[in-house]
Specification:
With 147 residues, the chain is an alpha+beta fold. The protein has one domain (41-144). The protein contains 3 helices and 9 strands. The chain has helices at 3-24, 133-136, 141-144; strands at residues 41-45, 50-56, 61-68, 71-73, 80-81, 87-92, 95-99, 105-110, 116-120. Strands 1, 2, 3, 4 and 5 form a 5-stranded antiparallel beta sheet that branches. Strand 7 (95-99) and strand 8 form a beta hairpin. The protein is globular. The termini are far apart.
Length: 147
């Protein structure tokens, strides 16, 4: 292959490579709004208005943090049983449901005054009637109640 031909092939290759890189960088991030979250990681919801972070804490336990604007909320102790079928479900940018994999469902509500309100089904069992059907169907029958 002569030098002129080699330059043409090299130039075409570089153009194709740059195009592929630019197109792959244009992908829209996955949004986990109203989608059950079941593994550790960082999840963007509602166009980034809410994020959920789940990380390893102590053996057998995971910690989670939910962030909305400048406010972050989560339990003081690792709240998820790692080997159990726990679920986090972002219903809206202001309301998140958390099933710990055991007996507890916690609803986290972000308030307009930058406060957060935690409600547990252990204290307020009737709150499960307000849980979204998509979330309830993922729970054990004993926790979900009537579907």
């Amino acid at each position: 292959m002569n030098a002129k031909c080699w330059r043409a092939v090299s130039t075409q290759f570089i153009v194709v490579l740059l195009t592929m890189v630019m197109v792959s960088g244009c992908r829209k991030p996955v949004d986990y709004a109203r989608t059950p979250i079941r593994s550790a990681g960082v999840y963007r919801c509602f166009g980034g208005d809410l994020s959920v972070t789940i990380s390893q804490a102590e053996p057998g336990r995971l910690n989670y943090q939910v962030s909305r604007k400048e406010v972050s909320a989560g339990p003081s102790q690792p709240g998820l049983l790692q080997q159990s079928p726990w679920i986090i479900y972002a219903e809206t940018a202001d309301r998140v449901w958390v099933y710990d994999g055991g007996k507890d469902v916690t609803r986290i509500d972000f308030q307009p005054n930058r406060a957060t309100k935690f409600t547990s089904n252990q204290v307020v069992p009737e709150m499960m009637k307000e849980a979204p059907a998509e979330f309830r169907k993922e729970l054990p029958e004993a926790i979900a109640g009537h579907r």
